[in-house]
C-alpha cells in the first residue's frame, strides 16, 4: 500500500518482542536503570524509555506497560536484540528480587495506525487498557503514531472482525518515517547515538525529575548546556534514499549521514546548522538531492518547519 495511509489499518510487528520483568523489586530495579520514571507506569499508563551506557550512549529502547493480572512489567523490545538486553539486565540484577522472562512465544506485538485510530479510553499519549488477556496503549511518543498492542496472536486477528484491515509492517514503517520517529537500533547507532539528538526529549522518553539512572549525567549536560549539534530528521528524495551510513554533503562539507531508508523516504542524522542555513545549496547523498523535513513535534528554535 502506498500513498496516504487509510483508516483502520493494523499490522503485526515481528521485529518486536516481549520481555517481562516481575518480582517485588521490579519497579525499583528498572527505575535505577532507564531514562523514564517507572512511577508513571501502571495498568493505565505506558512509557517509552532507553537503557544507556554509563557515558550516556544508546544501548536499547523499549515501551513499558504493566500487566493487570500479575503486575509484571511488559517491555516491548527489538526481537533481534532481545537476548542482549536480557544479558545486560541480568548483570545489573545482583541480589534484586527480579524475574526476567521471554514471553514472545505467547505474546505478539502489533499496531493500529493511520488517519483514524480512535479507541475508548486511549485519547492521550501513553494511555493504556486491557485487550483480552493483553494490553493496548496509545503510543507514548506521539498521538499520530497510533496504538500498540501486546496480546496473543489470535486476539490481534480479531481486529479484522472489528472492521480493521491487516496490512504489512512495511506500511507501518512508512508511516513512522513520515512522522520522523526512530525505530530502535536501525536509526540509533548502538553505543554512539544520544537521546537528545534522537528526539527522546520531545517524544516523552526522558523524565528530567526522576532520580539517577545510568547515563543521566551526559544526557542532562547535553540538554542544559545546549550541546546538541545534530538531530534525526525525516528525509525524502525523488528517487531512492541511499543506503544507511551514506554521507550527506552540503557545499561539499560532510553534514550528516543516512540512518534508515525505505523507497523515497528515510531518516538521517544531520547538523542543525545545515538545516537552519537557508542557502540555496542542496543536501546531497550519493549524488542525489535529498530534502530534510522538520516535523512539528521537533523543538528547534533555529529551524523553520518545511
Please tell me about this protein's structure.
With 306 residues, this protein is an alpha+beta fold. The protein has two domains: 9-179, Probable tRNA modification gtpase trme, domain 1 (Gyrase A, domain 2, 2-Layer Sandwich), CATH 3.30.1360.120; 184-292, Elongation Factor Tu (Ef-tu), domain 3 (Beta Barrel). The protein contains six helices and 17 strands. The protein has helices at residues 26-31, 82-93, 153-157, 169-179, 216-224, 272-276, and strands at residues 9-12, 16-22, 47-52, 58-66, 73-78, 99-102, 108-113, 128-131, 134-138, 147-151, 165-166, 230-237, 247-250, 253-262, 265-271, 283-285, 288-292. It has a six-stranded mixed beta sheet with strand order 8-9-10-7-1-11. The chain has a six-stranded antiparallel beta sheet with strand order 13-14-15-12-17-16. A five-stranded antiparallel beta sheet has the order 3-4-5-2-6, covered by helices on one side. Strand 4 (58-66) and strand 5 form a beta hairpin. The protein is globular and about 60 Å long. The protein starts with 8 loop residues before the first strand and ends in a 14-residue tail after the last strand. Residues 1-6 and 302-306 have low confidence and may be disordered.
